[in-house]
Write a structure and sequence with these properties.
By secondary structure, the chain is mostly beta strands. The chain contains 2 helices and 28 strands. The strands form 7 sheets. A 5-stranded mixed β-sheet has the order 7-6-5-4-28, with no helix packed on it. It has a 4-stranded antiparallel β-sheet with strand order 8-9-10-11, with no helix packed on it.
Length: 314
């Protein structure tokens, strides 16, 4: 009995740190961030973040969240446990895309107007370096081994591959028209990009950016996410109010799921099954069950919900 009591006590102490992954939804039009408890499926806090918040990057190791603020030309730092604003950091002209490396040591901020990516140390929030990339850098993602940073250059119709050991450009590859959201699989083999103006996605070899396939989806695809052990790819279609679901092996469409009006950001929860979609015009978030390929809940958030990036803590 004593052993059981100790074990239950340990479970009680340990479980809160892992049992409540949170979704951080930027509401660009009312300068706020809605925090959703992904277990209860409700908004538990709304934080004021000025500067038209758009992009989101969760730093799980440091328990922080970074919010890009295009109008303020920088990013805000949130405490993901205490749910409060810690500080703001100035970057440059128009910060939009934002991501972290896999160890949580660096945060990368894409400047839409200056065609650069600024690299910051997450502990000191000091600028390490600034990288020149293509025109209007948008979505970004880092390989799981922390070797490569991938950047979607919207106005150049290209993807840049940055060597994070040398902070140098390794490769640039043309994709579809106006790439925006991107993601890389967990094996580091495939990179996917949503091309807004050509209504398709490009599949690239993540190691050398060789083009592998182009697949048509809905109207104005914006962002992209993987689920179910990378077997399914979900793409938000802004002008169709839908999410296209592709089989990543066959690259065949499995479903087109109706969500809210003007879906933008998309991210997969810690369970690898539930996919969250921020709907800009409807001011809410659709929750998709990837196993059943259907919407199972809708959560009211704030005005102009965008949530561009990986916005769910693990």
């Amino acid at each position: 009995m004593q052993f059981l009591s100790v074990l239950l006590g340990l479970v009680f102490v340990i479980s809160p740190a892992f049992s409540k992954p949170l979704a951080f939804i930027t509401n660009q039009l009312d300068n706020s961030v809605s925090v959703i408890d992904t277990q209860s499926l409700r908004v538990i806090e709304t934080l004021k973040v000025t500067g038209k918040p758009a992009g989101v990057a969760v730093n799980n190791p440091l328990k922080q969240v970074y919010i890009s603020t295009p109008e303020a030309g920088g990013f805000a730092v949130l405490d993901s446990e205490k749910l409060k604003l810690l500080q703001t950091v100035k970057v440059g002209g128009g910060s939009l895309g934002i991501t972290t490396d896999r160890s949580g040591e660096r945060v990368f901020v894409a400047d839409w107007y200056q065609n650069t990516v600024a690299v910051f140390d997450t502990k000191t929030l000091q600028n390490i370096t600034t990288l020149n990339v293509g025109k209007s850098p948008s979505g970004m993602t880092v390989s799981l081994d922390n070797r490569w940073l991938y950047v979607a250059n919207r106005m150049d119709d290209s993807i840049s591959q940055i060597d994070l050991n040398k902070y140098s450009l390794r490769n640039t590859t043309k994709v579809g028209l106006h790439p925006f959201g991107i993601t890389v699989d967990h094996k580091g083999e495939r990179l996917y990009t949503a091309n807004v103006e050509s209504n398709d996605i490009t599949v690239l070899d993540a190691r050398n950016l060789k083009r592998l396939a182009t697949v048509k989806v809905g109207a104005r695809p914006y962002a992209i996410a993987l689920a179910m052990q990378d077997s399914l790819l979900f793409v938000t279609n802004q002008d169709d109010s839908s999410v296209t679901v592709l089989d990543t092996v066959t690259l065949k469409q499995l479903a087109e799921i109706t969500v809210g009006d003007k879906p933008e950001g998309i991210s997969t929860a810690a369970d690898d099954r539930h996919v969250y979609v921020a709907n800009w015009f409807d001011n809410n978030v659709s929750v998709i069950d990837a196993a059943g390929l259907k919407v199972v809940d809708t959560i009211v958030t704030g005005e102009g919900s965008r949530a561009f990036g990986d916005f769910i803590s693990q």
